[in-house]
Amino acid sequence: MRADSTHLTSMRVHVQKAVDEGAWPAAQFAVARHGEVLAFESFGEARDSDRFCLFSSTKPIVASVMWQLFGEGLITLDTKVAEVWPEFAAHGKDTVTLEHVLLHTCGLPNAAVDPASLADRETRTAAMAEWQLEWEPGTRFEYHPFSAHWVLAELIQRLTGQDYREALRTRILDPLGLDRFELGVPKERQGDLQRVVATGEYPMEALEVILGRPIDVRVLEASDAAARAVANDPDLVALGVPGANAFSNAAGVALFYQELLHNTSGLWRPEVLADATGRIRNTFPADPSRSDAPANRSIGMIIAGPDNGATVQLPGYDTPLQARPYGGRTSPRAFGHPGAGGQAAWADPETGLSFCLLTSGMDRDMVRDFQRHIAIESLVPEWA
Which of 1, 144, 279, 294 could form a disulfide with 283 if both were Cys (CB 3.0 to 4.6 A apart)? Predict the structure, then answer.
């Protein structure tokens, strides 16, 4: 099939508007179906040859290595991390299972390693062994921005004997021909990477409603600066942060999701892939501080689930925000994972479409950015 020109034109208009308004200095999108890219376009400062930081859209890519290891019988969801990595058991972490790690229920959402120590595996793992639980594993959900996938990286290395970046390359990316996809980009190959910049202003009143507490703008700025460093710091980019900074163009991501839909390469056992992309295992509230839409997480993905009508009206905005991801017009079976700064990546088994939108602008007004994404992503199902 060919991309519907009306919806493609509408999508271009929305993306170009974000570029013209300065929210996204550069952007790319791609739509794919039947294993082929239907549309791939770049905007603003971006060239088609440029690559963008996926931020947390990296997470399913790394998890997909674990799915292979399940199929090979090397590990199960019930396996305790400490069975593979004994030192991890310190401070009561002996009860943490691989399922807890993949579902972000392992109780380590704020655990971190000094950036200066990340590159040395021995120092990094020693620091991780000293992490202390914030709550009992499996009893609640809280998003783990970095910690959970550093645990996965170590498990991958112990189970395969390969560095986690090498395992991702040889097991997933090379077999799929995704040569523009990379986790751990050497400095000499960083010339085609889009630098991420902050844009817009914080909607302080709305953010305080969302978080339920007063906010210090200096804390926000520091957090956002740390997030941008993941994409911009040459050393962190060369290292490859397993839950945060793979780089690709939008076409490569859309094709990866096509493979999750069809598994033409046979990289994953069908029953494991069906579990990863179709079974919701985490229905804890997405926001543990208040009653909210469920997290709807599988072992590596966020699944759209049924539209339960959950919305929130925020001060300063005319339109209520819907809780359902992927534009709200995909089927309940749609699966994927967003990333900081407005990165979007998902596929819908009902239509066979996969979609990716990558940007170089981290809009401080994340409410406005979410509304922008709803407008763009809601156009994709119309192509089916």
Answer: 294
Q: What's the confidence (pLDDT) of residue 1?
A: 37
Q: Which residues contact 193 (CB under 8 A, 6 or more apart)?
A: 50, 51, 52, 53, 185, 231, 237, 247
Task: Give the SS3 label for residue 121.
Answer: helix
User: In this predicted model, what pLDDT tens digit does every residue of 314-355 receive, in sequence order?
Assistant: 667 777 667 778 988 899 999 999 999 899 999 999 999 999
- Which of 323, 327, 316, 361 minimizes the C-alpha distance to 343? 361
Environment class of 74 (CB within 10 Å of its CB; exposed 0-12, middle 13-18, buried 19+): middle
Place of tokens 């919305």: 311
CA-closest candidate to residue 142, choices 106, 91, 89, 191:
106
Indicate the pairing of strand 197-199 with strand 361-363: parallel
Q: Which domains does the chain have, with CATH numbers?
A: 5-383 (3.40.710.10)
CA Rg value for the chain: 20
Neighbouring C-beta atoms of residue 132, cutoff 10 Å: 11
Alpha helices, DSSP H only, in 21-146? 59-71, 81-84, 98-102, 121-129
User: Given this model, what pLDDT does residue 257 score?
Assistant: 98
Query: What is the rounded distance in angstroms from the CA atom of residue 33 to the CA atom of residue 279?
Result: 22
Determine the residue type at 24. Answer: W
pLDDT for the residue numbered 142: 95
- Type of residue found at 132: Q
* CA count, 13 A, side-chain hemisphere, 127: 16
The stretches in the chain having pLDDT less than 70 are: 1-4, 288-292, 308-315, 320-321, 384
pLDDT of residue 132: 97
Burial of residue 204 (CB within 10 Å: 0-12, 13-18, 19+) is middle
Rounded distance, CA 128 to CA 146, Å? Answer: 12
For residue 20, how many other CB atoms are within 10 A of its CB?
A: 11
- DSSP code of residue 302: E
Cα–Cα distance for residue pair 21/24, rounded to 1 Å:
8
DSSP 94-106: GG-BHHHHHTT-S
| 247, 250, 252, 254: CA torsion to nearest 10 | 130
Task: Give the span between the Cα atoms of 69 and 61, in whole angstroms.
Answer: 14
Question: Measuring CA to CA, which residue among 243, 311, 272, 218 is closest to residue 77?
Answer: 272
Per-residue confidence (pLDDT) for residue 308, from 0 to 100: 65
